[in-house]
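Sequence, structure tokens reproduced for reference:
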Amino acid sequence: MPVPKGSTIDPERTRAAILETATRVLYERGLDGIGVAELCTRIGVSKETLYRHFGTKDGLVEAMLRARSERVTSWLAEAAAAAGDAPGDQLAAVFDALQLWYDEPVFRGCAILNAAAQHHVDAVRTITARHLGRYLELLTGIASRAGAVDPPVLGRQLLMLVEGATVVAAHHDTVGAGEAARQAALTLLSAAARPGLQD
């Protein structure tokens, strides 16, 4: 990234700027859909700068996936928290947020799972497992607050609905994918709750 005359180089800011732009490009094109030379051109940096900050393209990909996972899981947790204290409202808010994402013109599915499907390497698998684990923690927490008889089982079922809806939206039809999964999730939540503890 060119540095204006008279300004100083800020390595952290440069790294963050590379990561932000690369995230958009890699999500749009896919990890294998663009080579290092073109990626550097799109980002506006030299290969040397890219390698200095991330080591390799794989290093950039891993940093991008970690940052994106953090952003997405925090976004869904915030959506659930903003819905109030009722577990049913929290769960509905998660799927409502997902539908808004699916409706975005740039939606290409889950970047983390896309990466896992393209690259069967330990680093990406570890990031993916952590990403899904954070989803599971959020959903199991909702299940527990709803009084589910077995919150971990319900949390896993809800995770399957989240990921299933995302795959359907990415590869079949975005219209109503989140809403259909929302209805199924609320049905599961109601059926799994102990009598008198449903919201």
Remarks:
- The radius of gyration is 20 Å.
- The chain has nine helices and no strands.
- Confidence is low (pLDDT under 50) at residues 1-8.
